[in-house]
Amino acid sequence: MSEIEKVAKIFPCSQSEALAQAIAHSYGIPLGKINRLNFSDGEFQPSFEESVRGTRVFIIGSTNPNSDNLMEMLLMLDAAKRSSARHITAVMPYFGWARQDRKDKPRVPIAAKMIAKMLETAGATRIITMDLHADQIQGFFEKPVDHLYASTIFLPYLKGLQLDNLTVASPDMGGSKRAYAYSKFLESDVVICYKQRAKANVISHMELIGDVTGKNVVLVDDLVDTAGTLTHAANLMIERGAKSVRAVCTHPVLSGNAYEKLENSKLEELIVTDSIPLRQQSAKIKVVSSAALFADVMKAVHHNESISSKFLM
């Protein structure tokens, strides 16, 4: 039996088990058997409960903090390598620690680069991820990286809303490229928020560049953490005459009191993927599944087929 004819195997990290189950179902194969032994001091040991020798292994897990999520991915990659898997793909719907992608002041680490090296050292021969915080993080890897865009699942949803006078907005200057890409497909105007921070996660001032009077606004961003920027921008746009404001954010980190901020804001809807499990439910949050996207790309990778049709941006 040739390598391509062999059935690939999919294994979940514990944090992403629900998404991994959905991906495996869409792919058409069951999840592989895995066990996790927990020690009383917090140490843990994952183990494959079936042979992976000579196979292509997909290990699915987002690496958002706490660090156990990253550690579990690294341990599973190492276990697959030591079990003689032929190809080992780290499927990371959310690549955590990516905001530290450069030295923005003296004497700080470049965490994204360090983690890229750790993943490769642990055994990853390929990376599949979605909406990196910065596109250039792909260059931190020496192995192939398939960088998917959630726009392929968000855009059909947004078009289905049939909003009139639609305007796409970026909550900061850094996201303007993403906003313009969405506006191209939605044939809409673009506005941009300019913000200044007093410190990390604290906005001291925000100004709006563009007119939103009478518009249905869609804010787009790669992630929502404390929801401070997002809710501040939504409230500002309603004050400036916007008809409605909703947001599209790929990764729902939603730390601290983010849920409370969302509930108390003028934001009508927050649309996210299932790259990170929600800590709690909210009537304002709509989750669209990324399972079919990942399953299609994984199947194409396994059969050495093109995945270019999956890139809308």
TrEMBL record:
Biological process, per Gene Ontology: 5-phosphoribose 1-diphosphate biosynthetic process; purine nucleotide biosynthetic process; ribonucleoside monophosphate biosynthetic process
Catalytic activity: D-ribose 5-phosphate + ATP = 5-phospho-alpha-D-ribose 1-diphosphate + AMP + H(+)
SMART domains noted in UniProt: Pribosyltran_N
The EC number(s) this enzyme carries: 2.7.6.1
Keyword Cytoplasm tagged: yes
A Pfam family reported for this protein in Swiss-Prot or TrEMBL: Pribosyl_synth
UniProt keyword Transferase present: yes
GO molecular function, one term: ribose phosphate diphosphokinase activity
Residue ranges of domain Ribose-phosphate pyrophosphokinase N-terminal in the record: 9-123
Cellular component, GO annotation: cytoplasm; ribose phosphate diphosphokinase complex
UniProt keyword terms in alphabetical order: ATP-binding, Cytoplasm, Kinase, Magnesium, Metal-binding, Nucleotide biosynthesis, Nucleotide-binding, Transferase
Alphabetical list of PANTHER family matching this protein: RIBOSE-PHOSPHATE DIPHOSPHOKINASE FAMILY MEMBER, RIBOSE-PHOSPHATE PYROPHOSPHOKINASE 1, CHLOROPLASTIC
Name used for this protein in its record: ribose-phosphate diphosphokinase
Species this protein is from: Mesohalobacter halotolerans
